[in-house]
Each structure stands twice: as C-alpha cells, then as structure tokens.
Fold these 2 entries.
Entry 1:
Amino acid sequence: MNSVAARPRIKDVAEYAGVSPKTVSNVINNFEHVSERTRTAVQEAIDALGYRVNIAGRQLRQGRTGMITLAVPELDVAYFAELAKYVMAEADRRGRTVLLHQTGAVRERELAALHGFDAQFSDGVILSPLSLLPRDLATRDRRLPVVLLGERPAEDGTDHVGIDNVRAAREATAYLLSRGRRRIAVVGGAVRGRQGTDRLRTDGYREAVEAAGVPFDAALVLPVEAYHWQDGARAATALMRRPSPPDALLCLNDHMALGALRALHELGRTVPGDLDVVGFDDIEASRFSVPSLTTVAPDKQEIARAAVALLLERIDEPDSGPLQDHVAGHRIIVRESTGG
C-alpha cells in the first residue's frame, strides 16, 4: 500500500477499504444503494486515516461559498456578542463559516445587509434589524435567503426567529407586582410607535399592570437614546429625582439595568430594599454585579440553532415551504436585585 499523504484523500480511503473512489463518495454522501458491509469498511477506513470531507470544495461545486453572514447592531452590547458566539458555533457544527458584520443600527447598513453586501462571498444572511422600515423588506432581493432576528418591521414573508416579547415583559412585570411593587418604571420603553422590541415589551408591561388593577401611568415609561450603560444610569437618576419616584425598574436590557444599579448606589438607594431592578437578556455580567441582576433570559442557543437551521434550509431548498416564525423560549432568572 502506498504511503498516505499528510491529508488523506478519497483515493487513499478507497485503497485502504478495497473499494473504488466512487463507492467512498457514495458512502460520504449517504447514498442508499450501498451494502452495510461496504459502508462499514469505508467508515473504518475514514476513521483509521482521519479523512475529513472537503466541505469547501463541495460547496464550490454547488455554486456556493459555504459562508453565511451575521449582521448585528453592536458587538459591544453583550447580548449581540453572546448571540454571535452561539451562531458561529452552530454554523461551524454544520460545516459553515460566519462572516460577522456590525451595522451600528444604521438603516443604510441594514439595507446593505438585506440586499447582500457580501453576496459574492455569502450564501445567506441572518440579520438583527433595529432601523429598517416596513417598506424596506418588500424591496429585498428574494434570491438571497434572509432570516431576521428580534422584531421584523413588517409581515412580508421573511423567516424570523425571536422570543415573545409581550409575554416576557408581562411575566417580568407580574413578578414585580407579586412582590408588592406598584410604581414600576419601564426604562427604554415606548408607548407609541411601530412594533419594535421597546413597544412590544411596553405593551406586555401595560397588560400586566392593568390586569392587576394598577392604573397605567405613561409617565413611568421612559424612552432612552440608546440601550447602553449610561442610558440606564441617566434614566434611573432622572426617575429617582421625581417627587414620586418608582419602587421598581423594568429595564429593557441588562446594560441599562446595570447602569441603573450604579446610579442607584451613588444616590444612596438600596436594591432590593428601596426598589427592585429587573433587566432583559441575561448577559454574563448580570451574574457578577452587586447585587446580581434578576433578568429575563431568552434562550440564545435556541435562537442561534433555529436561525442557522432556517437559513440553511432556504439555501439548500429556496422553495422548501411557507414562511416560518420561530418563537424561542425565555425564562425569568431571579437574583439578588429582587431579593432572590
């Protein structure tokens, strides 16, 4: 037998197993008309030689690159960084490479992603939009597979993966109400506007307070410029300086909640003594703050798995079925900021 090269090839596997290269290819591609004895012999040869399928070559033969694009607003917001980690791990498990792009939540950059700014390199796009308008999705090139994360601007026939934001906020608010809190402020909320994450979570909050017989007070819904640490700190400071301050903060992401915790500490307010604080996203930092942060935890691994699976399905079979809207799970993790 000839010496095997550092990276074994199909013909090396064929020689080791005593079959033809075509038979090896049939086994690798799971062709059904192969005897179990032959399949076993080929698999033993693959294992013995350490042969690996050349996925890149296979993709190029099919007119594909084997790469997908993930476009997110900000990588310095921990939720998107953690989500990107899970997407990249799932794509790698399925033999794909991820091109990572940061849109800055700028509409023009989100449009560029939607229209395939990496079309020559990428087979499809997973996009988390914040600034797209409802009409933008109607103009996209349908030949480019796209899966949207978070909230989609319109019901246009694009596959989508997200959590039930209304339900998640309703459950978080109901939890605060169960602790006797009645003046619950929403940091980063929106009473009016299109159905973005902020509006949906505010809707869930409103449903919960009204169901508990607590009058909805729009003054307790505080919009912010961005969902960063400093925005949460500024919002908490402004709220606590009011004549009738809140007794709880529902912050619509963990970055703002952690900023709020710092501001409350500087103001001499105790958490959870004077008020409770709840965040969204369950980023790693929320477990190490003092006090540790109670938060709504979306299942980021499920979101990543579903998004990659939907995208690859559309890449392999563009007309594989109707629009899919995958609702991932979530749960409330109770920690010290609400007495947990």
Entry 2:
Amino acid sequence: MNAVNAPEPLPSAEALLRATPPHALVATARRLLAERMGAQEVTLLLADYGLTVLQPVTHLPHTDAPVPCHEGPAGSAFVTQKPVVEVLDEPSGHLVHLPITVRGDRLGILSVRLPARTVAPDTVLQLGDFATALGHEVTTAGRDTDLYLQARRTRRLTLAAEMQWQLLPGRGCARREYIIGAHLEPAYAIGGDNFDWSTSADHLTLTVTDGMGQGIDASLLTNLTVSALRNARRAGIGLADQAALADQAVFAQYGGKAYASTLLLHFDLDTGTVHAVDAGSPQLFRQRGGHTERIELDAQLPLGMFEETLYEEQTFHVEPGDRLIAVSSGVHGTRSAAGDLFGERVLRQVLGATRSAEPHEAARAVVAGLIEHYGSRELLSDAAVVCLDWNGRR
C-alpha cells in the first residue's frame, strides 16, 4: 500500500511577514488576510508625531486622508487599546479596527474590512495577534526603509526634531511591573528635550533630559548627553557615576558654556526602591491614594556646568498603584500670553483630572493642558512629560 504524504503545513503569518521586504509589509498583510480570512480591505494607519491623527501608510505622495487619533472608531481603538468593530451598511460588511502596540509603544491601527458573517470573537482575536506581529515587523523595518517614518508626519520635521525623534527609545514601554507613556511637544520642532529608558531582569532606568538652547544647538547637546548617559549605563556603573561621566563629557565639549538638566531614576523591580539623581530642572510628582505630591529631591548641578562635578544618589519608594509623572522645565515653567505661569497648581489640576486615564493619555493630556494655557500649539519651549504607573511584583 502506498503511503500518503501529509500536506505541508502553511507557513505562519509571522514567518511570511518576516520574509517580506521592508517596504512591502502592507501589501503582504493585505494578501495574507484576503487569502486566510476573506478580508476585502486592509489599511495600516500610524500615529503621527503629534498624536493628532492616524496616517494611512501608502507610498508617497499617494497618501489617503488621515483620521483623528482620538475620535471615531479607529481613534477609539487607539485610545482604549481595544479592538473596535464598526458595523457598515450591507453588503460592505464590518470594519475591524485593531490597535498595533509593540511592548507598550502605541504605533497605530490596523483596519480590516470583512464580510459581516465572518466577524466573530475568535476572528477578532486572530486579527489582534496578526496586528501585533505586523507591528513588530514595522518596528524592525523602520531601520531599513523611510516609508513608515514618512507616514508618521503630517508635515516636515525640523532637522533638530529629526535628530531628537531618532534618539528616543519610543513613546511607551510596558511590562508586568510598570507601564510608561510619554509625550513631546512641539512634536515637529522639538530641540532639547528627551526621555530615555532601559529595562533589565530586575531594574528599570529612566531619564528625562533638557538640553539648554533651541534648535540644532539644543539637539546636539542633548544627543551628546543622552549618548554619554547610555555609554555609562551600559558600562554597568552606578547612577551617580553615570551622571558624573556624562557631566565630564558635556563639559569637555562645551567648557561650561552649555549644559543639560537631567533627572535620573533607577527602579528596583522587586522592592520598589528608587535611586534618584536630580541634576537640574525636571520635576517629579507622585500620585498615591487620590493625593498628588511633588517628590522633593536635592537639586544638584546640571550636567556640564562645571568640571568634574560629583553627584549623590537619593532614594524614595514606590508602591503598587502609584503613578509618577516627570515634567521638563518647558512644562512647569511655561507662561501664558498674559504672563501666568503654568506652574504646579495648574499641573496638579490636570494630573488629578487624568488619574484614571492610561499613562499615554495622561502624558498627552498634560501637554494638551499646557498648549491650552499657552494659547498656541507651537510652544516656544520644548515640553516633555513621562508618566509611569507602578504595579511592582506582587
């Protein structure tokens, strides 16, 4: 009797996406979802730098109209980070909007139009897994093609902003122990503000940096500062020594004529103990049990102001349920057209009103409140906000 050969299993969607050229991911996604799930239309939308719209990914200049980041079915899926099924008129079927998020960094939305009879909970779950796989490939492909970076912008970035966005680790990061959401403005002209983080098995290091000046001068200073901090961190030395080595690097380059204010935080994921170095102007707030307080740290000299400055660490503690918010001087020091300082009082009001929001939305809301207070979306000073929800290891 002749043996019957079993059919070769179909390659996984993840494997096929990995094998796709970087620029062709959307086309491959359309083909796979059409063949395997009967998809009639597939659109990848990426959030723009200012988090105002979701931009369809197409080959420039043939770009479809963007949709709002915080309105409509696609915007709702982006904000809530949950799939949204939009019921269309027959025979159009249903449009499923799926959040694309990579390790806590919200990239955008995958919108898939399916025949109405095929939309079931299992289908939505499968589409969610596909969207996550596509997000990972888009993140990797960004190293090799400009397509996805171009799709994120509604207008041209300044050169300083281009440098700053390339320096960032992302706009969010999530693990079981914590969730981080961050935001920068003016998104298309940012110069000196930066946030950075690195996680290991048992620790998280988080920094917020504000390089003095504007434009290219501020961006070059911040790039040097952040690179020096990363270099020291990756050498495995303590937080105070990281600050000292970065201080030496900046002073060696600028001789005290330019400096960077930096807040360095190092979290122990087991205990919630936080080691901190406050080297300048970023401020830190903690929300716990309905109360908002500023964490007062010993103000030490900004990095690069004087030669061979020595820095000291302080410690404080975070508990499960705590929220930390770090803001640069462009937030707490901005004045309105009438000369009113945004200040701690208004900041506390915004933080209180956004306590139930996810960290990404809370950070964005602080900047939105700042823009409303200032009276113009084009802020004169850079503004950085980092929001961290602490879960700890329970």
